[in-house]
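Students often ask why we bother predicting the structure of a whole assembly rather than each chain alone. The short answer is interfaces. A chain on its own may look different once its partners are present, and contacts between molecules only exist in the joint model. In this exercise we take two input lines together and write out one structure for the complete complex. Read the inputs first and try to guess which parts will touch.
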Amino acid sequence: MKPIKIGLFGLGTVGRGIYSIIGRAKNAHAEILRIAVRDINRPRGLDLPAGLLTDRADDILDDPRINLIVEVIDDPDASFAIVSEALRRGIPVVSGNKTMIARHLPQLIELQRAHGTALLYDASSCGSIPVIRNLEEYYDNDLLLEVKGILNGSTNYILSRVFDHDEDYDSALRHAQEAGFAESDPSFDIDGLDSLYKLIIITVHALGVYVAPERILTLGIGHISDADIRYAREKRVKIKLVAQVVKVADDAFTMFVMPEFVARNKYIYSVDDEYNGVVIRGECYDRQFMFGKGAGSLPTASSILSDVMARLHGYRYEYKKMSYLDRPAYTTDVELTVYARYGATDLPSLLPWRHIGESYRSDDGNYVIGRISLADLIARRGLLDAPDVFLANIPTFFTDRD
Amino acid sequence: MKPIKIGLFGLGTVGRGIYSIIGRAKNAHAEILRIAVRDINRPRGLDLPAGLLTDRADDILDDPRINLIVEVIDDPDASFAIVSEALRRGIPVVSGNKTMIARHLPQLIELQRAHGTALLYDASSCGSIPVIRNLEEYYDNDLLLEVKGILNGSTNYILSRVFDHDEDYDSALRHAQEAGFAESDPSFDIDGLDSLYKLIIITVHALGVYVAPERILTLGIGHISDADIRYAREKRVKIKLVAQVVKVADDAFTMFVMPEFVARNKYIYSVDDEYNGVVIRGECYDRQFMFGKGAGSLPTASSILSDVMARLHGYRYEYKKMSYLDRPAYTTDVELTVYARYGATDLPSLLPWRHIGESYRSDDGNYVIGRISLADLIARRGLLDAPDVFLANIPTFFTDRD
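Now the answer. The structure tokens for the assembled complex follow.
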């Protein structure tokens, strides 16, 4: 067991959490030798040893003492440059950068194979909940049917303010920003991209298949209106932003990120505030539910620490499911039942509905509830981005609690 | 990757689940070569290949093709004989026998070390919830503060009938037996032994310390009365049978199994029916909650399958925390706040209370609520078994949701 000597990239919220946690974990046999930051002179209010900080990546990459790189910077392109270079040099990496990983996972897997090294990233999906590791190691069999959950704390916090505290959307967003649960530019969370990237990573470890972001329907909560909220309240459901990957046949699965009407008997109904919750459904174990803090400095840092400790024992993802004989294929040929609210954009005539079961018009807003294929929604993606349009999934093909 | 050739011991409920699941898991590269049963002629309603069954353990132990033994028989002594013999011969074992493992874990760890082989037993604790593997691998650091949960499905099913369906205890127990969630002799579950053995195994993987069963306070639900149920309902709490291991200082932890008053804001409040739920609390990630089916043929078998798959990749528990420098020590020198209901057994005078905060006498039953040390409860263990006595823990030293 070789002690871990870390080169850390990034000293933002998560980086500071890591610095604090590594210091506290007596049995981690880990030490941070160098920290690379963009601006070495920025005051940080931390009592750091002289020479710890550097603004040159090579000071870490070239340091022969360093046997693990931990990367938590917020620029996905810079992150990919650093991580891929480290892997090429055979240095293992722990990263929390979901955007970078989701966009480049096939290359990153290839780099790990080619250079016999490891990239761990459990922190990238659901912070402190060990989703990736469990999917990779424990649900390592063909019994897995579905992974579905609330993967984004910001939007969940906002929607919890709306549905549990009767706030309107704008004040809920403001509260989330004040509480530090939403960025000043919240679009990454609100548009569903954060959930999407996590879902892509989860799917690789759940089913062994990588699907590129642009192929996946991703609808956010930014256009939710008072009428939608009122409708959901009347139906005694909550609207939540849900990401899911679901086997729809032995040889096919689908995946998407969409607002969803969540009924009271579902596990994720009670995932509130900034929390994340994931339901793993399988053929024999029915449903498993994992719940915890999905973001924040220390929860994310503790997940990074788990990956660091795993490296102490030489752990790496094997991507076992990618070598399965009969991997299921991604399909968008599935029918969804959706609530579609609209104003001037005439959704009933512009979308190729298979069936419209309910239709409502009023001065406040109009909606239809109908069945439509996922492929058709993706083909009309532009329509769905209109500011007067809001869609929510109404789960029908899943039974009971999920 | 060597295909797994299994010798299976036991073809009861779980054994049949394993037989069915291994057949279904195409990518498991696993095959059952031989099944040892007590009575080879018993009709089983299964279409088994000729020669699969045997009633001689040596037919499996001596078979050079078999590279994994899966043991799910219900006799702990016979189980220990088989498992220890297999380990001595260097054959890895997957077992679901919590009683056997909890009683003999130090020897079993030593046998694994001495003979360079592996014993996996995630199925022994909480069926399909991957508690052991996560504690061993993911919560592999000194941040862990507490593991607390509902580990026994039978008692939870009974108590759910009482608190969610307003039944009395006797009819709830009868319903549990009819539904197959309680044995005809339910004492193993009801007296808390099932929870205790799981807690002992969990503690080894949570904190790296083995504590023998007889050193741990284990109180069951068998003596619960209508008065206790009424009291809990009035206070708007549920009584649940809770097992917990808790760090009480940097260098000390305590553990016990006791009925507990569970308030509505606790995660485990909503763990109902036959489900299990475990809360893992740590310094940085706050609380993680894992929830799922804790027992039953297929959930347990799917957990066994996960261990089988892990063996395909050579996985073994490293018992890393047992080699930590500063392992915390087990202490019973902690103060609990308990509700103690009694009839003729005069608990107020017979127990060394540090403080009695509430005292009630009536024709229906009497109770006190007071503070008392765990060590004193253990020393007066005999008193607590009196049929007119029922104790429940009132959690005080934990905050908020747990």
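Check your guess against this: The CA atoms of residues 25 and 208 of chain B lie 33 Å apart.
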